[in-house]
Amino acid sequence: MAVGELTLPEFNAVQGLKLGTGSAGIKKTGRKDLVILELAAGSHSAGVFTLNAFCAAPVQLAKKHLQQAQPRYLVINTGNANAGTGPQGLRDAERTCVEVASLMGCRPEEVLPFSTGVIGEPLPMERLLAGLPSAIADLNDLGWAAAASGIMTTDTLPKGATARCEIQGQTVRISGIAKGAGMIKPDMATMLGFIATDASLSQPLLKKLLKQSCDISFNRITIDGDTSTNDSCILMATNQGPHLSEDQPDDLACFVEALNQVMQELALAIVRDGEGATKFVRIQVEEAASQKEALSVAYTVAHSPLVKTALYASDANWGRILAAVGRAPGLESLNVEGVTVYLGDVLLVEQGGRAASYTEEAGSAVMQEAEITLKIQLGRGQHCEDVWTCDFSHDYVTINADYRT
Predict the structure, then answer these.
(1) Domain termination residue (choose one: 220, 238, 272)
(2) Residue 205 maps to a domain
(3) What's the predicted TM-score (pTM) here?
(4) Catalytic residue at 190?
(5) Which domain holds residue 266?
(6) pLDDT in tens, 224-253
(7) Do 301 and 394 share a domain, yes or no?
């Protein structure tokens, strides 16, 4: 179960976008596992993708198609990642796009494919293609909730966020869905994320805003430190509403605030629903010499199995935190006496050792909480960064040990 309350919102319908969900039986019979998004003609889209060298065939093809045309359709399947599948995997991704194009009357390069699930197994193409008509028949502008469920793998709950803002006397809507619960340490994107707005934006501006928003949302979360072969995040503008540009800083700022809200809600929902997670943890690094240094420390602590298992056990074993800080890459000539560490509002460490005011009872009380903030002040500069993570439980091991069965 997710940490904290995690429910789908009442989505704002985005003008010019429809979503349809169907069943192809890719991994389990009867499961909703195929989603189609239809964009109005004239829409713009931008994407960020995994930097994993073994990126999946659909990632390779989606990147190629985005360079050739603006998409009219996105097709997403769960249950099979179509990754590590060689030339056949690429042919299967291409065949999917050709089939959608034939059914919908567009060019294959106007279709973007996405897959998630087991790596290294051939995509069951006959089942996938046979399932396309059911997803297409379901296309509607209120299909967000069904689509959020349709893209899940080991997620226990669907993930969605929505916002609206008033620009030039018109209502601009932003809605998005995401999936991910394990193999999460995004590098440019999340496991899968799809965000749309009916505002009018150029493709270059859309790409810039997506990168900026990812950097403060999806690129600031980690569950287990594993970057997937299939990470993809797409931002779509249907261009049905007011035009936004960098020449309109106030309007653009209003839009960006709403976009960042949606992106961060989606990213944090992934952490809250981390595989086997029982704790939601914010790691806040302050007084770093650079942004890179702050993130290095935050991620080193967040990825430490010893820290994560202590969090699961509610064990205030603060020495594990110090050890992780001290081995963070790039942390040159650290003056340990200048480091201060807080667990919640409890001072743990100062002047190179345990704080004089610290008690085990106070630390243990914070560790019992489901949501914890760990603040590390390095005493080296003015830079600060946040990273969100979760604990490691027995269930994480069980889920991944049994993943293919």
Answers:
(1) 272
(2) yes
(3) 0.94
(4) yes
(5) 17-272
(6) 888 889 999 999 999 999 999 999 999 999
(7) yes
